[in-house]
Amino acid sequence: MTNEQPKSIIVIFGATGDLAKRKLFPSIFRLYRENKLSEDFAVVGVARRPWTNEELRENVKKSVGNLQTEDTDIDKFASHFYYQPFDVTNVESYQELKTLTEELDTQYNVPGNRIFYLAMAPEFFGTIASNLKNEGLTATEGWSRLVIEKPFGHDYQSAKELNEQIRHAFSEDQIYRIDHYLGKEMVQNIEVIRFANALFEPLWNNQYISNIQITSSETLGVEDRGRYYESSGALRDMVQNHILQMVALLAMEPPIKLTPEEIRSEKVKVLRALRSMSIDEVDQYFVRGQYGKGIVEENEVIGYREENSVDEESNTATFVSGKLMIDNFRWAGVPIYIRTGKRMKEKATTIVVQFKDLPMNLYFNRGKDIHPNLLVIHIQPEEGITLHLNARKTPGATASTPINLNYCNNCGDKMNTPEAYERLIYDCMLGDATNFTHWDEVALSWKFVDTISEAWEQNKAKDFPNYESGSMGPKASDALLAEEGFQWWPVGESNFSNDK
Ligand SMILES: NC(=O)C1=CN([C@@H]2O[C@H](COP(=O)(O)OP(=O)(O)OC[C@H]3O[C@@H](n4cnc5c(N)ncnc54)[C@H](OP(=O)(O)O)[C@@H]3O)[C@@H](O)[C@H]2O)C=CC1
Ligand SMILES: O=C1O[C@H](COP(=O)(O)O)[C@@H](O)[C@H](O)[C@H]1O
After folding, report:
1. Are 329 and 343 in contact (CB under 8 A)?
2. Is the CB of residue 87 below 6 angstroms from any atom belonging to ligand 1?
């Protein structure tokens, strides 16, 4: 992060909601605490609840209380927050919002810069964007940017319609579509690990890599989001966005420059090269699962079909694993395995790059001891890298033993690692769209995922629930790799120790 102190008025639509409380207020506070904001900023919260400025400020203080340090004045921070109660479908209210933001420009010395953060249900995105434009809130002397939360559509068609609605009011370079995985330190680090190391980039292709595995497992169930999740499932909730974004970063060609346009253009090429499937072929490449009851972190938990707002015969997948093929020169023949699910054994996001075996290994009994070189990128909860190598441990011995080289990015000081939302809000203030998703990426991801959803809607799962809570998913997910002689490597903490 740079030390610039961008000035803007941030309008949060949905300021009384969960996202604002859990992610947005704390992230803005951290930026303030780290002196990234100066005193020249204001936040206007919008929602229907008849709160006052004081009530919003009290809620802000509550949500950031645990982040306070000795040298931050939480009351002073909260005094930058203002509240405007209105229904976003009510056009007249936007004039009052306009007047307030203009007054705040003068009070906080802000040159007309605006961030409109839509922390609300997607059905309101189009209406808010049009009203902002039609009522003149975007016609200021400074810049205006629109930040949009997920889900961006339900499939390609609905995403396209939503995009068209928004584009009537904002140009593509004013739209910042959030994918919070792109704000994670180690996701941003993929590019650096690849392009700043002479060791990896020459090997980063189908001559030397046998397969890549991306796991994003959660221990949580659907919590109180049953209604949303029933229409989304793991495929739309995680694969269409976060997982495909990681695939694109891992597989893209080196961009000619590190500009948002060049990086995006390389990511788009990967998404275009994803092997498409016919509906009948989906089962060869993808496995779905739904959790039943079980034990997670020593607690008994209920199955998905027993969760609130979930159909007791639900066909929704809470787990997806799949084999992606990228049909281009670099990756032809290298499977990229992905898996994500709720109520799994461990909370971890881990990427494992498995290198091909040597043509002949003098130190191992071939077929018995196989210790391939692995590069493991730990995205969360640990942030770091492990390189699995082979070396002689005992002096004079002829045998080789697997050893791990570990680098941990957040072991020293977890407090100071910026949160994903903190980075993304700051990037947006600076006008850096690198870590936001462009429409072209969203469109291609939906087209890829739509075939799978269609296949699964046509052929209902007959074996749901098919994995126990606290496991690593259904057996068919292991079989997907076993068919080609591979196995899922351990994820999370179990892959982050020196004694393996
Ligand atoms: N919560 C999370 O962790 C995440 C959320 N998201 C996305 O962020 C968005 C917001 O989610 P979340 O905060 O959880 O949702 P909530 O339901 O908690 O909040 C919704 C907000 O919208 C306001 N609202 C609803 N209708 C209107 C209206 N007609 N006019 C004005 N305000 C209205 C509500 O306030 P009031 O009732 O006072 O009007 C509330 O502030 C969604 O798109 C979600 O998918 C994405 C990733 C994670
Ligand atoms: O976008 C989402 O992500 C979370 C997982 O995010 P993480 O940062 O905790 O890995 C997931 O729980 C949620 O269902 C999904 O909407």
Report:
1. no
2. yes
